[in-house]
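Worked example 2:
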Amino acid sequence: MPRTGGVYSPPAGTKGVSNTTIQSVPYNALVDDLTADANAARPITAGGTGATSASVARTNLGLAIGTNVQAHDAGLQSIAGLTTAADRMIYTTAADAYATTALTPFARTILDDSDAAAVKSTLGLAAIASSGSAADLGSGTIADARLPSSMGGKTFTGDVQFTEGVDFGSAVAASATDLSRHLALWGTNYGFSITSNTLNYVSASEHVFHSGTNEVARISSSGALTLETALAVSEGGTGATDAATARSNLGANNASNLTTGTLPNARISGAYDGITTLSTSGKITTTGNEIEISGG
């Protein structure tokens, strides 16, 4: 007979009575009922599933996949294996693969902003958020890394210092009198300036010029140029730092080097002695005393 509330009850009249012969009909009815009950799906109330298939069993138990429970998913399995902690968030490293990374309280104040203006306000850039102008940067300096590597049309109103020299690249002068493409370096008290096609030295202190690590020349505050090594004769100099050496280097102290012209009378002075031979192809004329020849 059917179960009532999941509880099995034997058919009526099947129980035996003491000292009474068991009748086959009631007995067989009990056996048939037990067989039918054993072959029927065990109800949930009796510890079964009330079903004869897995899908119906899951449905009866409220475990229908896709309705009551999530089907197996590789991504969820990856997330289930993570160890979480305060101020960390989950992110993907590959398809269905997850990991965690830091998510600080400050970062969350930015993530909850709805637009760029709100982000700027969070970062303390409210003025720029309102105007969109860099002119609202009232303090601090921009790091070199934030500046473009190439800029054009810029005018610097103060001194500019270069730590690695200046490369003018392919810039060329616009004309023979245009020096601005070649040099336009100057300071308030020293350096160089250009006026029209003239290069001007602004002197307020000495400027020293080097070739590698060796000094080659310097310009004093008065504008005087001093070379570390005397300018060679082959380069238009004297190769000396004093007059006597200069005359020697130039051959000016050797009469043998006088190969043209004549000495004016004003350059010949006094009396001459020690002349052993005097040859002349004409007369010797004097406007003073007569010529006196003495000796043997």
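Residues 181-190 have pLDDT under 50 and may be disordered. The helical segments are 24-39, 54-60, 74-80, 105-111, 116-122, 126-131, 243-250.
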